[in-house]
Amino acid sequence: KTPKLRGEWGEASLDHILSEYFPQELYSRQHQFLSGEKVDFIFNLPNGKLLPIDAKFFSDNFARLIEKKNEEERNFFQKKFVQDIKFNIDKISSKYILPSENTVDYALMYLPAEAIFHHIMFNLKDENIADYARRKKVTLSSPNTIYLTLKTIEHWFRDTQISKRTQEILQRLNRIQQDSQRLMEDFRKLGSHLRNATSAYDSSEKRL
User: Fold this and answer.
1) In terms of Cα–Cα distance, which of 101, 86, 202 is closest to 134?
2) What is the pLDDT of residues 11-52, one digit of tens each?
3) H or E stretch including 32?
4) Could you tell me which of 65, 58, 85, 82 has the C-alpha nearest to residue 2?
5) Residue 132's Cα: distance from chain center in Å?
6) Given 3-state DSSP classes, what are the helix, strand and coil percentages for the chain, each rounded to the nearest 5?
7) Element housing 93 (H / E)
8) What region, left, alpha or beta, does residue 36 occupy, with left being phi > 0 and alpha being psi -120 to 50 degrees?
């Protein structure tokens, strides 16, 4: 019922999922930034970058929205609910996306209640919350989607790293090929000099 207990339950839910699927070295709790702000979790990506993840459990206006039968009251609490969502998206975007402190330029907002996530994604199409979140560089996730979201991001970073390494290898191979061509040219010149020297020697020997 209380916001504090809901927040703790949301963090515990996220902690449980992360511990089930990822080794401890891939994430850390209550990461503190230079500003003093703390994000619930930081996920360590393959390139050394940090992905902020914050759990948000705003159910008060959602519960009222579900309970009310009157259309006018439902519309009122839906607006309040949308305000709650956008407020938290703005909060995550402004406080935790800090490339200067080695974070990536986006963050995850974890919603520990599947019903709330479903309502946002499928019943608020006119509000287009997902698009609003994308503009703020925040991705919404739920208990059923957080693992897939993190694995997708992790694999994307690994592929990016492999692509960069592949480019480096190709550049090195290109330099090796250029060096080989120069070496071949030098070797041919040396052979030509040796042939000329041999010819000069034979000619001198005959004259001698």
Assistant:
1) 86
2) 888 888 888 888 888 888 998 888 888 898 888 887 778 889
3) strand 27-32
4) 58
5) 19
6) 65, 15, 20
7) helix 71-96
8) left
